[in-house]
Amino acid sequence: MLASVLLLATLSASGPTVGAMGAATMARAREALGREAFVTGSPACPEAAKRCFELAVHVVVEDGAEVQTPAWLSEQVRQANRLFALVDVGFRVGSVAPVDAAFADVQTREQRDVLGRAEHSLGVVHVFVVRRLADVDVPGEVIRGVHWRDRAETSRRWVILSSIASSLVLAHELGHFFGLPHSRYRKSLMNKSPHMDPPWPLRTFVEPEQAIMREHRDRMLADGTLRAVRGRRPPATPRDR
Question: How far apart are alpha carbons 209 and 76 in whole angstroms?
Fold first, then answer.
């Protein structure tokens, strides 16, 4: 972030002599500075969390603007931290990167594969934010999010969120990342059946689910799928892309 601020200040001081190339550089710096709000505006890892994991966020950019806002992502992370406190886990946004507008409308399984394949790395949860996410099983329908495995190599996996996702969708998809299937427990966040008893804001991870999540948490730490990080916030280093 600091690098973007300094670059903007330098280019601004150059005045009208900056030229077309400098103007383009300034525009990119402004865009990077705006994207950094997805990191700086998101919640820190809760102090009580015994293990903190990073989210590597990738946001589709259309016509110069991200398809969702830092405030929207912040609420997604806040809810995930609230619910994952049950298993001593917290999350922080460690990085943000732009995604080409070609992925704004993810229609097919192939697009889901390609979206994350080149960006995937171990140690973090990769989260992709797209404008529209089609239901690949029901033509014409859309979904709010998905935990997806690359069909060419199923150990590579990531979360995809639609821009229409409500605030609990990231927590639900992270539940899948931590080993949970869909649930029949009425009060579970993983229960997709159409009922409001309890309403969504009161859903949680039930005790049998928590046991599964702890087991998968420890397994992912052991095999390197996830890496616990120190500090409630990421280091203040440039993340411009």
Answer: 20
- Selection from 58, 62, 71, 75 nearest residue 167 by Cα: 75
CATH topology of domain 45-223: Collagenase (Catalytic Domain) (3.40.390)
User: 55-102 pLDDT, tens per residue?
Assistant: 999 999 999 999 999 999 999 999 999 999 999 999 999 999 999 999
Residue ranges of the domains in the chain?
A: 1-35, 45-223
d(CA 58, CA 56) in angstroms, rounded, equals: 7
Q: How far apart are CA 105 and CA 109, in angstroms?
A: 12
Q: Contact at 8 Å (CB) between 130 and 150?
A: no
Confidence (pTM): 0.86
Q: Which helix (H) or strand (E) holds 158?
A: strand 157-162
